Amino acid sequence: MGANQDGTNLLEVRGLTKIFGALTACDHIDLDIARGEIHALLGENGAGKSTLVKMLFGSLEPNSGEIFWNGQAVRITSPGVAKKLGIGMVFQHFSLFEALTAAENIALSLDDGSPIGSIAAKARALSYSYGLPLDPESMVGDLSVGERQRIEIIRCLLQTPQLIILDEPTSVLTPQEADKLFETLERLRSEGKSILYISHRLEEVKRICDRATVLRHGKVVGHCNPREETAASLARMMVGNEVQAVVRAPAEGIETAQPLLEIRGLTRKPATPFSIPLRNISLNVRAGEVIGIAGVAGNGQGEFFESVSGEVLQQDAASVRIRGKDAGGLTITGRRLLGAAFVPEERLGHGAAPRMKLSENLLLSRHATDGKAFVGTGGMVKSGAIYAASQRIIAAMDVRKSAPDPEAAALSGGNLQKFIVGRELDRRPSVMVVNQPTWGVDAGAAARIRQTLIELSRSGSAVLVISQDLDELFEISDAIAVMHNGELSKPMPIAEATFEKVGLLMGGAEPGHAEHTLETA
Amino acid sequence: MDITVNILLTIATAATPLLIAAIGELVVERSGVLNLGVEGMMIMGAVGGFGAGYLTGSPWIGLLAAIAMGALFSLLFAVMTLSLATNQVATGLSLTLLGLGLSGMIGTSFVGQPGVRLPNLDIPGLTSIPVIGRLLFGQDPIFYISIALTAAVMWFLFKTRTGLTLRSIGDSHASAHALGIKVIRYRYLSVIFGGACAGLAGGHLSLVYTPQWVENMTAGRGWIALALVVFASWRPWRVLAGAYIFGAVWIGQLHAQAFGIPVPSQMLSSLPYLATVVVLVLISRNKRLTMMNTPASLGQPFVPDR
User: Fold this and answer.
1) Given CB 3.0 to 4.6 Å as the disulfide criterion, which of A112, A150, A290, B125 pairs with A463?
2) Beta strands A320-322 and A325-326: pairing type?
3) TM segments (chain B) (predicted)?
4) Rounded to two decimals, what is the model's pTM?
């Protein structure tokens, strides 16, 4: 890294290609990263961003292509080699060990043999100097997602890298935590470090990145200066065509409408030492409205969904009421029979059985509610009717697939999600509860799913959406409630809600406190 | 007094093979691998140890052969589960079945032959001290190895960087791989260490406990060792406690049967199992601590994407 290399880029990638079976995940990628810049890598899910950075960090080996580091051709065969060169990585799916302390986690990625005690001291000092306070003795399993990310960042910085790769770092943060992260990144840039920033959030890319490289279907489709682009033009580059904007018609007369889903004083003890208890949650969802539940991942949303859907039964039958009937003691099937439908967060293994065909998955979730249509005399399955219904759903939701009736696991995440949502919508449920409706779904499909949820509510159903994506909640909700540490705030009408207010609640501020700071600001 | 010393000595002899096999399996499971083949590796160690000792006349060569036999046999498991990513439960079970059958075949000509026994320690002046002399300075060499091994494993797992790395692999092999830790290499070495320990435990049976070869002479001790690891929530000192509780109640009930206590012998024979489970469940009441010590990736095959 001497002064004689001023003219060269820190990193140059030429023709990098990675093939998985029939899929070319990265197809002759070129990428230049200069010293002291924040470079965005943009693209939809499945565009090849993660594959590319895995090759840069040595977790995957490219099939062909070259990587130049400070002008020298290098082969990055393992993360160890990458670290030695000066490449650090903050992973999207955290690569932390829950049963170990923060200091132990950091020690594991440093290859020097220094004792844990001195590493803990160094980590503490560095974390405070960057304003990301960290307790090295704390057990990772007890920490929030934001705190875990701090460990990852500090761990990466302790290796004094020249290039830091961040893979979708803000997807798990509150808006305030994200601001803090941006400050850190700008400081790192001013120290001459380079940052490769992977995201599909266009606003933040416009805000902090100097240059952007856009990927689509494994190919580079353009380079640009994000500050000179609009979010819409960036989206067009990513998706390849215009993304249909979601239209939310005003909800009419919901003040007087009947609550179809009532949750009253829902309380649940933690099932495992790492899970969150639910504390006295109350919420009404009326006919004709969409209520969104925001919150940082791991604040009880999963536990809440399980309790509402009937995966876990309640002691108090009146704590969940569907269409005016006590449902707390009913199983999922019982609640479905009352007119409710549920879409869980995890698609494979939860929302659908991976090794079963789409039509079989349809029967699995609707054998009780559509017993007459799908099951004949003597319990014989009516394959023809089920197949026809599954084709109807596939057509309605524009599910792209390779065979007429493929196995669920053969579909991409977005297409499977469209099928699962469509499967439930097809019943015209009067209560619909969805957890993370568009997580990992490309923009086009996400817009379609969001639009159908709004339309379902406008046709007189109650829709409850749990999501970590604030943009999504602001797009579709009539009111937003925030879940923090197992407690649910009062729903805030969308007209009054702002990112700042919701963000403060996500970070655990008292509702009254949030109002106050906003008024005085 | 002599009776007490004798009883204590027999307890140690009964506990030692359990302790060694369980400590070995503990290291394997801490790395995230579940090897249900302990019984098979143990019996292979027993037959190998007896055979080598019988043929050469040296119990020390027998001891080395027992260790080598267990390690070699575990290598088969390692290749299957780690390189070929087969199901660990099925592979472990078949390893046990294979070991029981193969050892019977190898040992056909050893049945009824007189074996050699590892001599007890005898330090002039120390061993003859009343009571503690024989307990501390007069036992068989494998007893001392077992205690040293437990201490060494404790130190290794919780005080060294390599031990921390091993535990991290057991917690999440995907995270470890992402950091560039050589998951498969660590697991190979762990499995082989576990195999060597199981072989040594088997060697204890055929070179110390009952210096002869009898088919199926491990009599389920491998399974008890496996259970000890889980009930001890993967903590070495608890494995030690568990092994000795089991040994104590085992010897106790033998004496009780000899005295003719009017309790059905089947009931008495089941006591060691019951007592061990109860005691270990009581000491691992702390759910949180148990979660922290349970290797989260236990039993899951690891296939790095390349």
Assistant:
1) A290
2) antiparallel
3) 6-28, 33-54, 60-82, 89-111, 141-158, 188-210, 216-234, 241-261, 267-283
4) 0.76
